[in-house]
Design a protein that fits this description.
This protein has 231 residues and is mostly helical. The protein has helices at residues 3-15, 21-51, 72-94, 105-130, 143-163, 172-194, 200-225; strands at 59-63, 66-69. It has one domain. It is built from seven helices and two strands; from the N terminus they run ααββααααα. A hairpin with a 2-residue loop joins β1 and β2 (66-69). The mean pLDDT is 81.
Length: 231
Amino acid sequence: MSADLRARVLAAAAAEAVPTRAAVTRRNIFISMVAVAAGMGAFLIFAVLMSEGQLLRLGGEVALHQHVERSVWLVVMTAGGALGVAATALWLALWRNRSMLGRSRSWLLYGGVLIPIGLFAWKVSCSLAFGAAMVPWPERSGLRCLSLSLLVAVGPLLSFLAMRRRSAPVHPALNGAAIGLAAGACAWVGVDLWCPVAYVPHLILGHLLPLFVLAGVGALLGQALLSLRRR
């Protein structure tokens, strides 16, 4: 490296203010509040428009003269398990541990595989125990749940990317994909409360597919916004 180039690099580094730990903590708390508000606001708007304000839907008409009702305990089990997986996804995507470089490639890849599998397997296994929740719903293909998942996840996805903006991850695309999965896992909890359907084709389209869409979008945004070359 030439002396002139070295001097310019050092001058540029010195010119960029480094925020204190307290400032970073305050910023992340504020961004987290924005993420929660955005997700909940989108969920409330969707519920008002699509189900007359019903935030928790326990059942509905499957066919003529056939009504299916979810048990409250089933809702507690599925939503509680999804909440645990979402917390794990957030920990994986946002918590840096002791490294300033973020999670390793293997951690991110394992999380990218296990988080969707965990959410889907937990939902199906709990629903199987209650039988009636698994019946086909011909009029509910899953498109509304797909829309709800993406709508609720947009705010958290952008907020989580903003939180990771200064952490300089080594693998920006993988980190972005992990952030997308975390946003999708958070949205899954709300969708699970709103949707009484556990029919597997419905779950694949309306609940599982959004996770992969958000992971793909997160990977693209991560490569664009978190890359060291971008900076």
